[in-house]
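Dock zinc ion; give full complex structure.
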Amino acid sequence: MKMLKLTSLVIIISCIFFSCKKSEPIKSPEGQTAASKALLEKLIEYGFKKDRIQDLGKYYVVGDLLFNKELTDMKKLEAYYSKKNVQTEQTATYNLISGARADNIKFSVAHVSDFYWQQAIYAAFTSWAGVHNSKINFHDVISVDKENYADIIFKSDEGSLPSNVIAAAEFPTTNGAPGFQVLINYDFNSGNISNESKRYNMAHEIGHCLGLRHTNWQSMGEPVNPYGANQIPGTPSSDINSVMNGGTALFSWNGFSQYDTIAVNYLYPFGTYDKWITAPGTKYTYTNYVTLYNDNDLLEVRWDKNLVSTTTVTIEFYQYGVKKGNFATSVPNTGSYARNRVFMRNTFHSGSSYNYENICQIKIIADSSPSVTDITSSFTIFYND
Ligand SMILES: [Zn+2]
């Protein structure tokens, strides 16, 4: 385990960074709005240590957790807080992305100008999507003007994060959406960050967006509330190899620990029919798209014909989460059906000013039992107009 020595060295370095945070005082609340004062009071009430809450103007930040002052998360905080006496609260906290959304998490890097940070984000999502036995999956919302469809937006902190914080993320919301943004501090360590470290940190922040807390939250001195902190069954109380350990900004990507994957499998398992459709919308690997450049190019829908007992199926085309029309009806349950570019273009692309269609999904319905359905993760169709 030659990694171990290196790892302990990095821990020492990270601790130096981490200890810096503690010395930074809270700014005077003068000039603060009522909302921000109330938020600060609540954070303290919920157990965040006063000397760890940093005032960044627009946000309070504790470690790499952000609290927006004005777009107040008060309801969210309150919801977490009020749940603290409920027996199931901690499981719910970890399981916040709803089942219907967990395999269709949309993100945007439109505001990430740095090529290498972009690549780190793509690589990190590819790693998360590649965890076996978990349904989590992702889609890159490719256009800036479609950004309001993105669940997680990546952008520069624009100087708002302290110099010792490399990035910051949000946890999932109470309505089952992932944490909605990740801020990146390009200036961290004077911008001297290896690509593998960028990848590590993006995997870490995405983990927060998925509802994972720091594996070492206790030794980091983080409180249980407002987020809850349930140990996931099958994982140990500490895991030095976990990507989700805090204070690890200079670590390099070395894969998930076995317990990281156990955690994701536990939080986001496949449902009964989640593997019914097998293509398109397969697991994200740097991108997820179909090309229909020539008239004979096919968009082929494939499904596991043995999973559902039905003679025929209905196949629908969705875009932006809304049904746009039928892809095909009364389709024999053979496991495959395709439409060519001409059909797709005339039926679903007509009038579009883009040479692509973003955030597409295919839904399959068992005609024998219409409540039995499966819908793909989002994918993009590129035309060659
Ligand atoms: Zn973190």
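Observed: The longest strand covers residues 322-332.
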